[in-house]
Amino acid sequence: MATRPKTKKIVEPSASAARETQTKFKHPWRIVPLQTAPRLGAAITPQLTYRNGPLLTNVEAFTVFWGKAWQDATNSAVAKQMNEFFDFILTSKLMDQLVEYSVDGKTIGHGTRTGSLTMTSSEPGSKVQDSAIQKMLQSAIAAGTLPAKSANALYFVFLPPGTQVEQGGSASCTDFCGYHDATRDNIFYATMPYPNCSGCEGGLSTLDALTSTSSHELCEAITDPVPGQGWYDDANGEIGDICAWKTKRLNGYTVQLEWSNAAEACV
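Request: output the structure for the sequence above.
Response:
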């Protein structure tokens, strides 16, 4: 049985420290920044605090590969590899790390990949708004094309090469490489643009860039599914923001390090 970490004194950041954000984005952060984006060192040692929102205790990940381009042989091979990555990572040591962010009545454990869909009934186009992704998910869930939402359901939407997503006045490959969010009716989802630029490749292969970005958003969605209402640090953001583009290998996959309050480090 996992043990709970010792309770630590919560140190609230000063107003000046809170303004020293790592990226240009306003709180709450929920994005993977470009690898080339300048980031400031933390003004104080990061300390995630729990804000009483939901947690995905046994995440149920469903992958959605949106657009006919995913039927191309090269892209479909990437989709297959990403599904294999989720099958591994959801019961891996990366998930075991997150147990320290369990709270009374909400114990974080392993997850499962509940399925996958290559969606060809509609196309994202060359530019797609986050609002359109939310509408697509809501419509597909209502139609039964996607499984019903639940307290643990997390939909990973992968966009094809050549599609740029715009969210919050910013755009993929210009400002970010992926993000997670929740709709007003608490559909939890992550958006994964294809890494078409050097800032989102970060010197990695396409697959490694996607697994790194996906692991960042997976851990953030589990610990802070409604951004800013789960585990969060006002000065440094979410569990993955603090460790952006710091990676390690697990079973041959590239994953991002995540912040540990207990270790006071990216692990």
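The chain has one domain: 49-266.
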